[in-house]
Amino acid sequence: MKNKIAWFGIVCVLFVGCTDSKNQVRNTNAVMDGEHIQQFKKELEDLNEKSDIVVSVPDSSRIIVANEEDILQLENGIVLFGWPSCPWFRNAIEPLLEFSEAEKATIYYLNIKNIRDQKEMQDGKVATTEEGSVGYRAILEKFHNILNPYKGLGLDSIKRISSPTVLFIENSKGVHKVVSTVISQKDPHIILTPEQKQELKERYRWYFVEK
User: Fold this and answer.
1) What is the pTM of this model?
2) Which sign, positive or negative, has the C-alpha torsion 53, 56, 61, 64?
3) Are residues 88 and 180 in contact, defined by beta-carbon separation less than 8 angstroms?
4) For residue 157, what are the contacts with CB-CB under 8 A and spacing of at least 6?
């Protein structure tokens, strides 16, 4: 009887271990099977003819297209917030993907264009003119301490995610972020110079190593 109990305990441990492994494999396969990459690639490259910033997404890119719940459950990783038509976002893609490839770091991408809230000052008070998604509001709450204030409101207590924001997460907490591109870029409709791209790539790498 004792042997049977011991054997059952071993099986349970193995089952739990296999379950965790499958979750890891799922994430790996999401990158390797190409579905996420092709979706991301299509979102960006379909706008090339309409944008000043032409983007090419390699088929080998380490991208997982995520939803709000994926980000909330992410314990360790790098999240890219933004949307494809944003020129700042498009300028950041090449340096980010090159950094990702060099460091073998997977990027979790969340399109935030249609999930953010809209706020404005009305009679000296903050009014919400459009509610954000439940998941977006949960992300704001979870990473409140590291996110930037909502511009134009003059209140540090109200946060918003701008495009692009690259958030480095460790132990379910935001530990570093890179917002926009580089300080020297004044016009997002002009593509980054090779020197600016390298500077931005090094910023990603610095925070990745620090993380």
Assistant:
1) 0.83
2) positive
3) yes
4) 149
pLDDT tens digits along 111-144: 999 999 999 999 989 999 999 999 999 999 999 9
Instruction: Specify the CATH number for 34-210; select among 3.40.50.2300, 3.30.70.260, 3.40.30.10, 3.40.50.920.
Output: 3.40.30.10
pLDDT per position as a tens digit, 62-117: 999 999 999 999 999 999 999 999 999 999 999 999 999 999 999 999 999 999 99
> What does DSSP say about strands 165-170 and 77-82: parallel, antiparallel, or unpaired?
antiparallel
CB neighbourhood size of 140 (10 A): 18
Give residue 185's pLDDT.
97
Q: Which two tokens mark 121?
A: 């000052």
Omega before 164 within 30 of 0, i.e. cis: yes
Length of the chain: 211
